[in-house]
Amino acid sequence: MARIGILGATGYTGVELSLLLEKHPEAEIVFISSEASAGQELSSVFPRLAGCDKIRGKSLQNAASCQSVSVDVVFSCLPHGASAEACLPFVDGGARVIDLSADFRLADPALYPKWYGKPHPRPERLQEAVYCIPELDRAKVRGAKLIANPGCYPTSVLLPLVPLAKAGAVGAGPVIADSKSGVSGAGRKPSLGTAYCETNESISAYKIGRTHQHLGEMTQQLARATTGGLPLIFSPHLVPMERGILTVAYVPPAPGFDAAKVRQILSDAYANEPFVKVLSKAEGLPATGHVAHTNRCHIAVAEMPENDMVLVVSVIDNLVKGASGQAVQNWNASNGWAETLGFGA
Amino acid sequence: MARIGILGATGYTGVELSLLLEKHPEAEIVFISSEASAGQELSSVFPRLAGCDKIRGKSLQNAASCQSVSVDVVFSCLPHGASAEACLPFVDGGARVIDLSADFRLADPALYPKWYGKPHPRPERLQEAVYCIPELDRAKVRGAKLIANPGCYPTSVLLPLVPLAKAGAVGAGPVIADSKSGVSGAGRKPSLGTAYCETNESISAYKIGRTHQHLGEMTQQLARATTGGLPLIFSPHLVPMERGILTVAYVPPAPGFDAAKVRQILSDAYANEPFVKVLSKAEGLPATGHVAHTNRCHIAVAEMPENDMVLVVSVIDNLVKGASGQAVQNWNASNGWAETLGFGA
Amino acid sequence: MARIGILGATGYTGVELSLLLEKHPEAEIVFISSEASAGQELSSVFPRLAGCDKIRGKSLQNAASCQSVSVDVVFSCLPHGASAEACLPFVDGGARVIDLSADFRLADPALYPKWYGKPHPRPERLQEAVYCIPELDRAKVRGAKLIANPGCYPTSVLLPLVPLAKAGAVGAGPVIADSKSGVSGAGRKPSLGTAYCETNESISAYKIGRTHQHLGEMTQQLARATTGGLPLIFSPHLVPMERGILTVAYVPPAPGFDAAKVRQILSDAYANEPFVKVLSKAEGLPATGHVAHTNRCHIAVAEMPENDMVLVVSVIDNLVKGASGQAVQNWNASNGWAETLGFGA
Amino acid sequence: MARIGILGATGYTGVELSLLLEKHPEAEIVFISSEASAGQELSSVFPRLAGCDKIRGKSLQNAASCQSVSVDVVFSCLPHGASAEACLPFVDGGARVIDLSADFRLADPALYPKWYGKPHPRPERLQEAVYCIPELDRAKVRGAKLIANPGCYPTSVLLPLVPLAKAGAVGAGPVIADSKSGVSGAGRKPSLGTAYCETNESISAYKIGRTHQHLGEMTQQLARATTGGLPLIFSPHLVPMERGILTVAYVPPAPGFDAAKVRQILSDAYANEPFVKVLSKAEGLPATGHVAHTNRCHIAVAEMPENDMVLVVSVIDNLVKGASGQAVQNWNASNGWAETLGFGA
User: Fold this and answer.
1) Chain A residues close to C188, C-beta within 8 Å
2) In the β-sheet with C175-181, what is the strand arrangement from edge to edge?
3) Least packed by Cβ within 10 Å: which of B260, C159, D228, D300?
4) What pLDDT is stored for residue D344 in this prediction?
5) What beta strand segments (E) does chain B contain?
6) DSSP-based three-state secondary structure for A189
7) Rounded to an integer, what distance in angstroms lies between the CA atom of residue B312 and that of residue B278?
8) CA C289 to chain centre
9) What stretch of H or E contains B20?
10) Looking at chain A, which residue has its C-alpha nearest residue C182?
11) Is C250–D246 a contact, with Cβ atoms under 8 angstroms apart?
C-alpha cells in the first residue's frame, strides 16, 4: 500500500480523486488538505463521499501542516501558482508528486508568465517535471518523481492530434480545435460566470483563437510531436452540463491522407489502449455522456468525400480522463503497474 | 387586421408563432390546424398559451378542413414533405403563404431529393418561392406570395457569412461553421434521441461535414452571394438546453482582410438593423442566453494577431430568429411594414 | 406616461421588471440604479436587454444620485434592509413606491427582527404600507403610496389558501405547503449554494418546518383571512431549473368540505381573474412550465375519495407573478387601470 | 463466481445493473436479454458501457432464447406484466430470481389489478416471493429463491417510515409523503412526457393523493409494520434531473414523540447500516446529489418546536438504492455475504 496525500481536496478534481483512490487497491490516504475547510472531514464538505472508507475520520488539514507527514505519493489539486510551492518540498523529501495544476506543464520558463500572467515561482525546477498523457508518453513517466498531469482541454485535443502529427498526416494551414466543456472545468470557487442562472439554458464561447491558457501546453506537445509544430487555433465553449468535453478537430490533410487513413492511424495508435476507443464508421459519432464518470476517450473520424478537411471528434470526462483519472493512470504508469489498476468501468 | 391561418400549430415553432402573433397588432387568427390534436384547443395541448386571447375558443382543425377558410396569410409549421402540398392551395387561392418548412427553400429541383431523401411533391412550383432573411434580402420579399422561411442553422450561419462573402473578405480554402443547437431544433415528436435522460448532461456532434440537410440552403445562398460559392463545412451539435444556436464560423481571410476589417464589414452591414447587433471588441463574445426569447442575432469577431483565420461568432434563438420570429419579420417585410412590428424586446 | 425609477436593476427581478416595463404603454423609465455597475448601461450587464428601447442610453446610477430625480413611481428591487431606507425619501417626495423587497411586508414591527435577524430600519413607517396580491386585496391598493409587493413563495401559497380560509373550508390541524422553487429565487449574488455544479442534477430541501423567512408574511395574511390564523408548515426546496414555483398545499378539510367543494370555492373566487386559472378535474395537474414567463397562476385540486386531506397544487413563475409581474400588476391596480395593461400572453 | 443472466438489459436499470455487476467479485454474466436490440452488443446500445469487460463480446438475446441457459441468478429489469412470465421458468429451474419489476411485490392477488390495471399473469405464485429492503427485512431474504425488489419511491418512503411505525411514533391522522423524482424513473421508452423540451425547466406533480401504483406496496409494507396500517398520502413529482428521489414525510407524532425522539429512533435503527446515514441536527438537510451514483440513503429530521408534525427527509438515487443497487444488495443478502460486496463508495 502506498501512503498518499492529497493537497487541495475540496475542489471538484479533489473529490473525483478521492472517489478513485477509494477503489484503488494500492492506495492508502494519509492526509487530505484544504485551507478553507481545515478541521472538517471531507465528507462533511461533500456528503457524496460519505461512503468513502479511506477518508473517514481524517480531518482536512491546511497544507503547511501536511509538509511533515511521511508519504509515498502526493497528488496536488491546488490552483496553479500555489501548487508548485506546496509540491516541491514533497519532491525534495523523496515522494512522488503528481501535480494536477498547470505549474509544471510548460518546460520553457518564459511561457508561464505569458499564459498565466505572473512569473513561475520556481522556474529552475521546471526541467524536472514529466508531462505525460500515458497513451502518448508512458515510457517517460516510469519512475518519474514530478509528474505534470495534463489539462482537460489538452487531453481532449492531443489524443486525436498527436498520432496524426507524428504520422505526417497534417497538411499546411491552421488546425482548429473547437472544444465544448461542462461547467466543472471552471472550478468550484463561486463566481457569477458559473452561477446556475447564468449558465443554464445558454452556451457561450470564450477566449477563442489563441488566448486560452491551455494553448501553451497544446502547442508545446504538438511541437514535440512534429518538426515545426502546428498552427493550432483553439475555441473553448461553456456548455450547460456538469462534466464532459467534446472537441471537433479540423485537420487539413497532408497529400495522400484522407478520413479513412486518419481513422486507421488512430485505430492503430490506440489498438491496445484500454481507455481509448476509436469508433468505426458504423459506430457513428460520440457524445460526452458516453464517457461520463469514466477514464475513457472515444474518438471518431467523419467521412467527407471532398477531403478538403478531416474532422476528428473526441470526448472525455474533464474530471476523470481530463484530470483525476489521468492522474491515477499516471501514478499507475509511474510504478509500472497496469494502468487500469483501480479503475472500474 | 390580417386574417391568419396556422398549419401545424402543435409543434414548437407553432407555439412560438402563436405567442408572437398574440402580440402583433395586425394579426387576427382564424384557424389553427393540427392532425394529432384536432378538436382540442391549442391551450389544452400547451397550457403555456392559456393567456393568449387570439386563439381562445378556436378548436384545432385538421389541415384539410381549413382549406376552404378565407385567409390573408398562412404560416405553415408542418414538417417538410407535408408542408408544400398543404400550402399551395392557399397560394392558389390568393393568400400569402410563409412556409417555415424546408419545402420551398431550394430553388433547384434536383437538390431536394439529395437533401431530403425523396422527390419534391411539386417541383414545378419551386421557382415561385422567395427565400428570405430580411436583413439580407428584404427587397425580394416585398409583395411575395410564397415565402420560404430560412432554417435555423442557416440563419445563424448566413447572417455572419453573407456580408463577408459579398465583400470579398473570404479567402481560399474551406469555411467551417461549427454550430451548437438546443434540443427544440429536433422538433416535438417523441424519440429516443431527444429524451431527457439521453440528452441531459451530454453534448454530441451529428451529421458533421457535408451531410446535414441544411447545408443545401446554406451553399445555395452563399453561391448567390459570391461568384463560385464557398466550400462550406458544417458541424452541428446537440446541446443540453431547450433553445439557442451558437455558431463559430472559421473564415480564411482574403488578402488584405483581418478581424478588424471583418468586424467593420459586419458593423456596416447591420448598422441600421434593429435585430442584429455586431459587438465591439470591448463587448466580448456572445452567449445564446443573450438572445433567448428574442428575434435578435448577436455577432462578434475574435481578435487573432496571426490572422491565419478569422473567427466570427453568432447567436440566435432557433425558435424565434431561427424560425417563427423570422417568419413574422418576413410577413412584416412582405407588407412593407416596420419589421419590428409586433415584437417587444 | 408615468416617469419611473428602478432601484437595484441588476438583479434577476430588476431585469424581469425592465422587460415588462418595456412593453407597458404608460411606462417611461427615467432612472435605473445599481451600486455594483454604476456608469454602465443595463444592457451591457444583461445583453438579453439589448432590444429594450426604454433603457437604451441610460447609464446605471448609484441609488443616492437618483434621490433627486423627479419620478411618479419607483420600483425597488433592492435587497431587504437596504430597500426601506432607499424607498422612503421617494414616498416622502410624493412618488408611489412599489417595494419588491420584504421591508414593508410585515405590519408588526416585532416580526421583522424575528424573521430577518436585525431591527427594521424604520419601524414607524410600517403602518403606511399596503401588502397586496391584487386578486385578494385589490381594493386596498387603489391609490396606495407605499406598496409592499408579496414574496414569491407567499404568492404561490396564499392564492390557493386564502379563499379556502375565508370560506371556512380549512379544518383543524396543520396546513402544509410543500414548495419547490427554481434557483433564481435565491438571487444573483454568486454563492456556492447557487453554483451550477452544486445545484444541477440535485434537488434539496432547506429551512423546512417553520424557519423560512417567508413564513412571517404567509401567517400574517392567513391570520387576516381567518379568525385565529392557520398553523402553517412550510417546506421550501431548491430545484435544478431557473424559474418557477410549484406548491402542493395539504389542507385538512373542515366538516362538509371535500375536493370538489374546494375546487368550486377556488373556481368561484378566480372566475373573473385574467391571471389565475383553476383547472377542471379533466385538465389534470399543472407544471411550472405552463406559466413560465407569464404573470399567471394555475391551480388544481386533486381528487381523493377518503377526503382525509385536500391537495391543492399551484404554479407560478417566481420572477413574474412571484415578483416583477405582480409589481406591475399592483402598479396597474393602484392606478385603477386594467391589471392586464402591458402584459402580453 | 455466480453465473448471472439479466433480462431486459437495455433500460436504465439494466444499464445501472451492468455497471454494478462489472465491479462485483462474485458476478459472471452469462446472458443479457433485450427484445428490441437482440443481436447487438449492449455497449453498442449504451456506449457508456464500453469499458465493461463482463459484457464484452456477448450479444443481446431475446428473452425466449435465454430460457435454456444455465444460470445461478437472474435479475429481471423487464417491465411489469412481462417480467413475471419470464422469471418463473428460471425459478422453476432452480435459479435465484431477483425481479426489479412490480410483478411480485404485492402479496394479495386482488391488489395487482387495482394498481396495474390488469390481472396478474400468475397470481398463484405471489406467495413465493420475498419483498425485501435489506435494512428492514434482511432475515427473510436469506436463501430466498424469488425476491421482489422494492420500487424506487417505496424505498425512499419506507426507510424513514417503517422504523417509526414499528416504534409507535406515528400518531393519528394522515401521513404524507411528498416525493420528487428525476426523469429516469419514468423509463427509457420515448414519450412526450419525458422529452427534453417538455421536462426541462419545469417541475410537475402527477398522480398525487392515493392514485400512484407504488402506493400499493407502501401501504402493504406499512401494514406489516403496524397494527392497522397507516393512512398514507403520496405525492410524486417529476423534477428536471436524470436521477434521484427526495421525499419529505410529514408524520403526525404519537403522544410523547417529537423530532429529537424520531431522530433517535432512526439513528438507532440504522446505526450499523453501511448504506443508510441519519444526519445529526448539525449536519442539516440532504440533497439528492449527496447520494447520486451510490447505494446510499441519507435521512434527516427537521426541528420544529410546535411539534404538531415531524418532518423527515430522505434521499436516494432511484436507479441505485431505488432499483439496481438494492437488487445487488438483496443478492448479497440472500447469499449471506456482506451486503456491501461489490459496491464502492
Assistant:
1) 192, 195, 197
2) C204-205, C232-238, C175-181, C245-251, C310-316, C297-302, C276-278
3) D228
4) 84
5) 2-7, 27-32, 73-76, 96-99, 130-131, 146-148, 175-181, 204-205, 232-238, 245-251, 276-278, 297-302, 310-316
6) coil
7) 10
8) 18
9) helix B12-23
10) A197
11) no
DSSP alpha helix (H) spans, A226-270: 259-269
Query: Which residue in the set D173, D286, D304 is minimally distant from C210, CB to CB?
Result: D304
Q: Residue C121: what pLDDT?
A: 94
- Mean pLDDT over each residue of chain A, to the nearest integer: 97
Which residues of chain A neighbour B210 with C-beta distances below 8 Å?
Answer: 304-306
Q: Are B251 and B161 in contact (CB under 8 A)?
A: yes
* Residue positions of D annotated with a catalytic role: 152
Q: Tell me, what's the pLDDT at C345? A: 75
Look-up: residue for cell 398553523?
A: C231
Neighbours of chain D (3+ CB pairs under 8 A): A, B, C
DSSP lists the bridge partners of residue D5 as D31, D74
How many Cα atoms sit within 13 Å of A279 on the Cβ side?
Answer: 24
Q: Active site residue: C87, C152, C197, C297, which one?
A: C152
Neighbours of chain C (3+ CB pairs under 8 A): A, B, D
Q: Is the CB of D176 less than 8 angstroms away from the CB of C208?
A: no
By C-alpha distance, which of D96, D169, D165, D177 is closest to D129? Answer: D96
Residues in chain D: 345
Question: Grid coordinates representing A31?
Answer: 492526509
What cell does C174 get?
Answer: 396543520
Tell whether ipTM is more than 0.90.
yes
Q: Which residues contact D261 (CB under 8 A, 6 or more apart)?
A: D169
CATH of domain D2-128: 3.40.50.720
C-alpha cell at B95: 393568400
Instruction: Provide the H-helix boundaries in D94-151.
Output: 111-116, 134-141
* Alpha helix ranges (H) inside D47-189: 63-66, 82-92, 111-116, 134-141, 152-166
In chain A the beta strands, taken as DSSP E runs, fall at 2-7, 27-32, 73-76, 96-99, 130-131, 146-148, 175-181, 204-205, 232-238, 245-251, 276-278, 297-302, 310-316
* CA nearest to B296 within chain C: C51
**Cell 425523396 identifies what position?**
B118
pLDDT of residue A344: 84
Residue B297 appears among annotated catalytic residues: no
Q: Residue B221 — pLDDT band, cuts 50, 70, 90?
A: very high
Residues of chain D with pLDDT under 50: none
Domain locations in chain D?
A: 2-128, 153-317
Chains A–B, number of C-beta pairs less than 8 Å apart: 147
Q: What is the pLDDT of residue B220?
A: 98
How far C329 CA sits from the closest chain D CA (Å)?
Answer: 24
Specify whether the CB–CB gap between B96 and B331 falls below 8 A: yes
| B chain contacts of residue C47, beta-carbon cutoff 8 Å | 286-287, 290-291, 298
> How is residue D175 written as a grid cell?
401521513
Query: What is the dihedral angle through the alpha carbons of B98, B102, B103, B109, rounded to the nearest 10 degrees?
Result: 130
- Please state which of the four CATH numbers 2.40.160.10, 3.30.360.10, 3.75.10.10, 3.40.50.970 is assigned to the domain occupying D153-317: 3.30.360.10
